[in-house]
Amino acid sequence: MGPVRKAVLVLRRDFSVERASREGLVTVLPFVAAVVVLAGLAFGPQMQVLRATAAGTAWLAVLVAAVPLAQVLVGGERREDAWDLLRGLTTPGALFAGKTAATWLWLTGVWFLAQGLAVVLMGGRLSVTAVAGGVFGTLGVAVVTAVLALLTTAGTRRGGLLAVLLLPVSLPALLAGTETATVSGARWLVLLACYDALLLAVTWVVLPALMEE
Amino acid sequence: MPAHRNPRRIWAWLVALAATTALVLGFVVAPEDAVQGQAQRLMYVHVPAAWLAYLAFVAVLVCSVGYLTRRDLKWDRRAQAAAELGVGMTALTLAMGSLWGRPIWGVWWVWDPRLVTTAVLLLIYVGYLGIRGLSDDPTVSARRAAVVGILGFVDVPVVHFSVVWWRTLHQPPTLLTPSANPPIAPLMLLALVAALLAFTLAGVWVFLRRLHSLETHADSEHRSEANAAPRRGTPVRVLPGRRG
After folding, report:
1. Any CB–CB contact under 8 A between B162 and chain A?
2. Looking at residue B167, what is its pLDDT?
3. Is residue B36 over pLDDT 50?
4. Nearest-by-Cβ selection for B150 from A154, A175, A206
């Protein structure tokens, strides 16, 4: 069985677990909706201000949702010792790729939910470059989330460290993703593509060290 | 070794001499800025602190790569010492920048590329130091820290370009410009270069002292573990008062 097929099996397994437990659906998605609604209350009620902050609010929701999502997709298995079972069944690279793909699909869904709510509640726009930015940007955040979740969720100490590291390292996605919703958004897609390429390259290099546990 | 030939002592004297020279040049000899007044003198601390912070984070990157390739904990201790120095200097850079910004810009903070990049660096490397406390096993801790050290540094140029494209308010480079005539008075330039040199020498001294402290601590832990292990042939007592 090739590594891509193994990664797809890990991805399918994660969705089967989610279908059975609905943990992400119950915790992450309502959290995202709450962030957008509260942002509307905090920045409102002037529509001009809300419209200007809509894209940024959606991306902020994605970044803060990545923290509980990491706990759902990676942290739980590590603490319940299911991680070693998974390691025994597949190669480290396929396991990491499958987890990253699951995180990416989740974050893309989160982005569409947050952006949709921002369009309806805050008068934001949804352009082609913004959608492309959503897809590219969530890929970078997914890679960072998977890497940092593996490093920080093995035990119960310093639970807040994931957020401390994830949020600043994901800053390019937040900034560039927000700017893709503007008139000159196309050049920010270049930055997002470079960010993703750099992260993927570095992760590929450090993967053996990352997956030793 | 005679005290006067001790390399550490010589280095300490060099640092003291460089620091004194920089202080005199920066706060006495260099003229006051025509527009910014005395507040401009904060530059002689702010710029060298930023320079030293970046130097320290490059050292963290190199030592992190060194640990992952060699798996020798000496590289990890070097990375830790460099990161601690870098975090301190980054905090100093931000503090000095705020103190300078208040009278000049009228605010303590602006969303400028340089400030944002620097604040992000501080958060990343505070997180880098925090990740060391997640495991009691030094090799596990070192491996995790090395991954974060590499990932964190790679993020720096991307953050820098993203905020540069976004907006800029911070002044452009003064020294590192393609122009043959940097936009700074000669005495001010001399004071700035002296401050850069003093900070670099002091930074290396602090780094070496901290590294020595970490290595001494590691050696003493290693010795106490070796002493605690039972010697071969020694009877091991299973219950107090009885022979095993």
Report:
1. yes
2. 63
3. yes
4. A206
Confidence (pTM): 0.82
pLDDT tens track for B193-236? 999 999 999 999 999 999 999 999 988 888 887 777 665 555 55
From chain B, pick out residues whose CB is under 8 angstroms from the CB of A158.
130-131, 133-134
Give the model's pLDDT for residue B244: 41
List CB contacts of A101: < 8 A, sequence separation 6 or more: A7, A10, A11, A142
Q: Given CB atoms, is B163 within the 8 Å cutoff of chain A?
A: yes
CB contact under 8 A, A164 and B130: yes
Contacts of A112-118 with C-beta under 8 Å, sequence gap 24+, read A113/A29, A113/A32, A113/A33, A114/A32, A114/A35, A114/A36, A114/A57, A114/A58, A114/A59, A114/A61, A114/A62, A114/A65, A115/A55, A115/A58, A117/A32, A117/A33, A117/A36, A117/A37, A117/A58, A118/A36, A118/A54, A118/A55, A118/A57, A118/A58
Partners of B37 in the β-ladder = B33
Name residue B177's amino acid.
T
Structure tokens at A111: 């982005």
Query: Which pLDDT value is given to residue B233?
Result: 58
- B164 at interface of A, judged by CB pairs closer than 8 A: no
Low-confidence residues in chain A, pLDDT < 70? 79-80, 154-158, 213
- A144 CB neighbours in chain B (<8 A) are 151
Q: Which residue of A has its CA nearest to B71?
A: A209
Q: Which pLDDT score is estimated for A60?
A: 93
